[in-house]
Amino acid sequence: MARYRTGIGWCTRFERVLILLVGLGSGLVEGALWGLAAAVNLNAAQRLVGVLTANRAGARDE
To answer: pLDDT band at residue 24, thresholds of 50, 70 and 90?
Structure first.
């Protein structure tokens, strides 16, 4: 099984927790959840593109 880099993406765990904390602290929970949903989907797309690019290039971290 090939191992790929998983550190790809804009929204790390820290940013996700920060979005939730700011939303809870400010009372804008719904807005924070929408922002979190958008950020998580963007992150997933970035990881998918990164894996596909690495797979096509044949560059795998082992």
So the answer is: very high
